[in-house]
Amino acid sequence: MAHKLLIASASAGAGHTRAAAALKNAFDLSGRPGSAETVDIIEHTSPVFRRLYLTSYFSVISAAPWYWRFLYHRWDKKAVAGIERRSVCVLDRLNTGRFIRFVQERRPSHVLCTHFLPAEVLAWMRRTGRLDAHVGVAVTDYDAHRMWINEGTDHYFVPSDYLRGMLISKGAPADRVTTTGIPIDPAFARPIDRAAAMAELGLDPARPAILTTGGGTGRGGVRKTVATLAKCGDVQILAVTGHNERLRRALDKLKLDGPARLITYGFVDYIQTLMAAADLIVTKPGGMSTTECLAVGLPMVLTVPIPGQEEKNSIFLVGCGAALPARNTEELFSTVTDLLGRPDRLARMKAAALKTARPSAAAEIIDAVLTLNGG
Predict the structure, then answer these.
(1) Domain ranges of the chain
(2) Is domain 187-356 given the CATH code 3.30.1330.130 in the classification?
(3) What Rg, from alpha-carbon coordinates, does the chain have?
(4) Distance between CA 17 and CA 26 in Å, rounded?
(5) pTM value surpassing 0.85
(6) In what order do the strands lie in the sheet with 261-265?
(7) What are the distances in angstroms from CA 21 to CA 210, 223, 288, 350?
(8) Intrachain domains 3-184+359-374 and 187-356 with the same fold
(9) What is the pLDDT of residues 27-79, one digit of tens each?
(10) Measured between alpha carbons, how far is residue 185 from residues 136, 243, 295 in Å?
């Protein structure tokens, strides 16, 4: 049969939309009959809700991260069918009427969600008979928060066996949770030769290369990170600033101490090549970016995470041996300097990353969701 797959995300951070794009690419490459389409629920909400939803999130994590940590853990304790969860769901549905109508007009046979907001709305549509489609949810961080769980969801796809058990303990039916990994672009399943990557980028193979990123918006203290890395010796610093052109111009004017070489990049569509060329990466522990690092076997040094989901990501990645934390610039300098002087430790971290990686997660999720109930 020809499938009609709708992949729903929310642009509250770039990771959820990137996961949706990865799933669409996996469907397109699968050769299955039918079509796949992505949709951002935020674009189909009222202007006031859209502004409040996005502004409040970014404002809180920037100005009062402690409060976001409090909210994150508080809502992880709320019962799936409790009065507070139901009240929030009602409020969300009142502001997502355009999205609900969009889904009904598309009449998909299967739906995948990479964010808990569309997952909640679509599960409600499913259980109330407003949607005749199988609903799957792909968790995009290394945590199993209770907000992902909704009555009406047919299946959950999680990053690890540990998180599978955690999601089940919080109320997800055991026969509806499968370990697949976080969906990243299928290109990451095809390794890139490091020497070829360095040649393509014009890098010196005799000097260590350190990648640092601030995500699609260039957040994450990149300027301070670059200044610290410049003190680590004769290194090549590959700084990705995303869409933040102001940051890129500032880095281009930065005076570095010592022999370090700085190369800046704006928004790139060849991050896999940069990762393949690097000896290690200094980054915030976002779910998507760190999963890509695992896929290429890139050792990570993780800077201060956003409270909540990124803290959980950091704990998971450090625990599996693929990453080390750096809570301040002093720790960053000492950790990077130590790693560059101990290639054996870098090799162990690389091996741990590759062992943990599941680069074919997107394809696995597509195969699984399209066969739900014989679909």
Answers:
(1) 3-184+359-374, 187-356
(2) no
(3) 21
(4) 14
(5) yes
(6) 261-265, 236-240, 209-213, 280-283, 300-302, 323-325
(7) 27, 29, 12, 26
(8) yes
(9) 999 989 999 999 999 999 888 888 777 777 777 777 788 888 888 888 888 76
(10) 18, 20, 10
CATH number for the 3-184+359-374 domain, one of 1.10.472.10, 3.40.50.2000, 3.10.310.10, 3.40.50.300?
A: 3.40.50.2000
Beta bridge partners of residue 249, listed in sequence order: none
Q: What's the rounded Cα separation, in Å, for the pair 141 and 144? A: 8
Q: CA-CA distance, 219 to 213, in Å (whole number)?
A: 8
User: How far is 132 from 139, CA to CA, in rounded Å?
Assistant: 22
Sign of CA dihedral 61, 63, 69, 71: negative
Q: Please, what is the Cα angle at 236 between 234 and 237, to 5 degrees?
A: 125
Q: Which among 119, 177, 125 has a CA at the least distance from the CA of 150?
A: 119
Question: Phi/psi at 362 (nearest 5 deg)?
Answer: -60, -45
